[in-house]
Amino acid sequence: MAKTVPPLKRAKPIRLNAHRSTTCVSARTLASQTDQFPSVLAFAVINAGWNDDCDAKVRRVLLMQDTATPQMLRGLQIGNHLPETDQIGLADIANVVSFSRDERVFREGDKHSFIYWLLDGSISLEMSSGIPATKALLTLGHGDVLAWSAFLAGGRMTATARVAEPTRLLRFDIQELRNLCQANHEIGFRVMEHLASQLAQRLLATRLQLLDLFHSPNGSNE
Question: What is this structure's pTM?
Answer without folding.
Answer: 0.66
